[in-house]
Write a structure and sequence with these properties.
Strand content: 5-15%
Number of strands: 7
Distance between the termini: 76 Å
Helix content: 55-70%
Order of helices and strands: HHHHEEEEEEHEHHHHHHHHHHH
Oligomer: single chain
Structural class: alpha+beta
Number of helices: 16
Shape: globular
């Protein structure tokens, strides 16, 4: 499914060398002073520009690179780069994820079927089919992608999936699934690496994944913290009417949906004994609208009492037919807090509450509930202190071990006198401080291993188990980031987040809003029809009590 660490390191060494050459030759990415920017430090969208330039003239640029050989590569390495003249740039469907590769089919008539191997990660973690733009390359006797993927956020009906499966099955039956490209040199026979080499390769792989996670995390944070607020101001200025219309429709939908739920609830609780369906519907709808209006007035700083003086019971003599005193409080109760406590212990401490002793469970639970009380009272400082204690191992042995581990890593990360202090060291320093307060020895040891990997310090084979655990943590972090990114892919500004708000962005955003408004209008019609159906449904038949008649 993916290349081994040694192959990954070679691939990126060759790729970065070639792309840096293209960037310098074509002057594509420039720094603030007008000089050539470092290709490796760029975001994926910026790197994509260099990739596009290469593949638009790959034969000429690769020949120029081979003639100059700027990094002094040997014959085998140059042969790999020369084979990239056979690269295939296209829009592909992912069709089937197999153990050894991902089956991919380009969007054209009579397409070939490729078996593509991932780099550090699989080509896609999403369930096929997925539509993506990328470039396939020969490498080490396999077919890989170039590491740059542009996803199309579309869904497919059963017909498309069936057609893709048919193309795949036919290619498989005729043995026409391509597992290597014509110009791909055969891989060199490799000696089995020693234990020390395997540790070094794993560390190199993790170093690449750490860097990839960090870039993606910063990209997402910048989008949410900088791009989205600017986009909101820009749309307010240019599309205020459309945004106001969407907000109005969404509020109407919330009102109608809540009213419909309450209508059904009151009817099932016996409201039909005194009133008709139409009366229940009118009463509930009026009450929900009034509540919504009062909420709006409170948000706007107005006097909610001016919204109306209708009875709080929603309709006079039917107060006993619904919830006494109105709807029940659905705020946090003990059941919900227990659930949140269990999630906290699992996510933050790595502890399943079912495995805790009764004494430890009750102590940690009481600490968690105490922190919630501080949060409700608005005491942020007390809340943070209490949360750090929840489930913490306060034994003298752990406290002493935390102090020692903290001091050991603090000497490396502390900003005073640290020539390596940068953004990454700053982030780890902040995490280290939080872990110390929480008496979290496991996290401190993970942060120390992280720093050693990043600084390329030598690791011993005895640390293999710790490295594998760390690899699992990095994989989980990558999946979380992929999920966060997937939620942003559908946003109209995401593809243009580095380009500013152009006329094309305005056109796409306005079209998107028009579609969304049409969809909201359709949802409103459906809810209105459902409420009308409730109103006009036959009344509940009255049943007579008594002994059943005997059959003759």
């Amino acid at each position: 499914m993916t290349l081994d660490p040694e192959e990954v390191a070679l691939f990126y060494k060759l790729t970065f060398s070639l792309m840096s050459f293209v960037n310098k030759r074509e002057r594509l990415l420039l720094d603030a002073d007008g000089g050539i920017a470092n290709f490796e430090d760029q975001l994926p969208d910026e790197k994509h520009k260099v990739h596009q330039a290469l593949y638009a003239n790959r034969v000429g640029l690769i020949d120029a690179y081979l003639a100059e050989n700027p990094d002094g590569f040997g014959k085998e390495e140059l042969a790999e780069i020369a084979s990239w003249k056979a690269a295939v740039t296209d829009t592909f469907f992912t069709v089937k994820q197999l153990k050894a590769h991902m089956v991919m089919i380009p969007c054209r008539e009579n397409p070939p079927v490729y078996a593509v191997v991932g780099l550090l990660d699989p080509v896609s973690r999403s369930r096929p089919p997925v539509l993506m733009e990328t470039t396939l390359l020969p490498f080490q006797g396999k077919i890989v992608y170039d590491g740059i993927v542009r996803l199309h956020n579309v869904s497919f009906d059963a017909g498309v999936k069936s057609s893709l499966d048919e193309v795949y099955r036919e290619a498989k039956a005729r043995r026409r699934i391509l597992t290597r490209m014509v110009d791909s040199p055969l891989p060199r026979k490799k000696k089995k690496p020693t234990a020390k080499q395997r540790i070094a390769m794993l560390a190199a792989e993790l170093r690449g994944k750490i860097a990839a996670n960090r870039r993606k995390r910063h990209d997402i944070a910048r989008f949410r913290g900088e791009v989205l607020p600017k986009f909101g101001i820009w749309t307010d200025e240019n599309m205020g009417e459309e945004k106001a219309r969407m907000k109005e429709l969404m509020e109407e939908l919330e009102t109608l949906a809540e009213a419909l739920d309450r209508m059904r609830m009151e009817w099932n609780r016996g409201a039909g004994k005194k009133r008709t369906r139409a009366q229940v519907a009118d009463s509930v709808l009026e009450k929900v609208k009034l509540e919504r209006e009062r909420e709006r007035m409170e948000r706007d700083g107005e006097d909610p009492s001016e919204a109306g003086d209708e009875a709080e019971d929603g309709g006079g003599d039917d107060a006993d037919d619904g919830f006494p005193g109105g709807m029940p409080d659905l705020g946090a109760n003990d059941f919900m807090l227990d659930f949140m406590f269990g999630e906290f212990m699992q996510d933050m401490r790595g502890i399943n509450v079912a495995d805790m002793s009764e004494e430890d469970y009750e102590k940690a639970r009481a600490q968690f509930f105490e922190s919630v009380d501080h949060a409700k009272s608005g005491d942020t400082s007390a809340f943070e202190k209490a949360m750090h204690k929840v489930g913490a191992d306060e034994s003298p042995e752990n406290v002493e071990a935390v102090k020692k581990a903290f001091r050991r890593l603090a000497r490396k990360l502390h900003p005073d006198g640290n020539k390596n202090y940068g953004d990454e060291a700053k982030e780890l320093w902040e995490e280290l401080g939080a872990a110390k307060k929480a008496l979290d020895l496991k996290t401190i040891e993970r942060l120390e291993l992280h720093w050693r990997i990043v600084r390329e310090e030598e690791l011993s084979p005895s640390e293999g188990a710790a490295l594998k655990d760390f690899a699992g943590f990095i994989e989980d972090a990558a999946e979380d980031l992929d999920y966060d990114e997937s939620r942003l892919l559908d946003h109209p500004i995401w593809p243009h987040r580095n380009d500013g708000f152009s006329e094309q962005v305005a056109k796409e955003t306005r079209e998107r809003m028009d579609r969304d408004i049409e969809g909201l209008l359709g949802e409103r019609r459906e809810l209105e029809e459902m409420i009308e159906k409730f109103r006009s449904s036959p009344e509940r038949k009255k049943t007579t009590k008594g002994k059943p008649k005997k059959k003759r």
